[in-house]
Amino acid sequence: MEESTIWWLLAGAAVAVELLTGTFYLLMLAVGLAAAALAAHTGASTVVQIVTASLVGGGAVVAWHWIKRRRPGDPSARADRSVNLDVGELVMIEAWEANGTATIKYRGATWTAMHRPGISPSVGMHRVAELVGNRLLVDPA
Fold first, then answer.
1. If I label 40, which of 25, 72, 89, 126 is the partner at 20 to 30 A Cα–Cα?
2. Smallest Cα–Cα separation from 106: which of 91, 124, 84?
């Protein structure tokens, strides 16, 4: 069997395992294996093929990790308006309790509101920032 065929089979196996596990980094390693297969097609030695596979695959993994870290993360589902329609709504807080919560009427029901750590509680209009269990995390409006 040709060396390039072995590299192509390894690349295909990496893609198949990625499809089963959902590990995107395996696709980056498969790119390295495909690069080694292309090196084998050009007649490169086995050592050059292995070095090509490791440099291209490892470089692709590092590059993808670096790109992912630079992008801002998705907001949690608790703070995403498309998941929780309460996020962004205004509520009126008339008084805060000693434990840092407030009892409010919202959508015809009684809710417990709490403020973010580090923000001093104040009365008045607040915007719902996220839902934490059955409590509303609010920011001053």
1. 25
2. 91
Looking at residue 8, its amino acid is: W
Cα 58 from chain centroid (whole Å): 21
9-57 pLDDT, tens digit per residue, is 999 999 999 999 988 899 999 999 999 999 999 999 999 999 999 999 9
Token pair in block for residue 35: 């690069």
User: What is the model's pTM?
Assistant: 0.56
**Tell me, what amino acid is at 10?**
L
Q: Using CA atoms, how far apart are residues 58 and 64, in angstroms rounded to an integer? A: 10
Question: Which residues lie across from 111 on neighbouring strands?
Answer: 104
| Tally of CA atoms within 13 A in the half-sphere of 61 that contains its CB | 13
Cα–Cα distance measured from residue 118 to residue 128, given in angstroms and rounded to the nearest whole number: 17
- Give DSSP secondary structure letters for 83-120: T-TTTT-EEEE----TTSEEEEEETTEEEEEEEPTTS-
The amino acid at 133: G
Dihedral angle at the C-alpha atoms of 88, 93, 98, 101, nearest 10 degrees? -30
How far is the C-alpha of 123 from the C-alpha of 131, rounded, in Å?
20
Tokens of 70: 């630079």
